[in-house]
Amino acid sequence: xxxxxxxxxxxxxxxxxxxxxxxxxxxxxxxxxxxxxxxxxxxxxxxxxxxxxxxxxxxxxxxxxxxxxxxxxxxxxxxxxxxxxxxxxxxxxxxxxxxxxxxxxxxxxxxxxxxxxxxxxxxxxxxxxxxxxxxxxxxxxxxxxxxxxxxxxxxxxxxxxxxxxxxxxxxxxxxxxxxxxxxxxxxxxxxxxxxxxxxxxxxxxxxxxxxxxxxxxxxxxxxxxxxxxxxxxxxxxxxxxxxxxxxxxxxxxxxxxxx
Length: 259
Hints:
The chain is built from 12 helices and no strands. By secondary structure, it is mostly helical.
């Protein structure tokens, strides 16, 4: 009962507060930096922890593998939205991108039971994404910030996370893990950037998102491996350490790309 209450509090607070933080950062440093920062597993990490505590380390390990494979549909969503935003309005971009997420998610779930060499696929998708997103120079243009922008993001984030996690635990470890990396942050940042600032801001945000995603991949794969050989808290602690290191390294690459 306590775990369920804690999870409900997590759903209703951590994602909206993270979106508030990213919104403030976006206003100060632009959508590209906000997109990169949102790659840190601030949503998937706690959700995987609660799934592991509720269902056990074996379930948690398989869920972490599902989350790792979930990066492929996440990238499919963001890349599709970025390309569609060049010619379409936000509604059609979102519809096409979520459809793409669903199709790739079905393939990703099937591949989790395939040969072990398929585990290289999310990493390969991350590398490919660095060359596939629509190119655009960072913009220093003044943007008008509407008053409802950040509250709308926070409400949408809480609602979307609540709906997803309400059903994920009943779907088995593969789907549960995959839903922990559902593009909650990515979709809200992409759509709100499109609505408020236009397609150029979407491309900047996706550039940051695609690069910051490396840390999520390191976290999920590390957790998948560590939960089989060590305790739950040690596994999560080491996965967070590896993830933080990866995020710091992507920041160096991020700065080099922006130079």
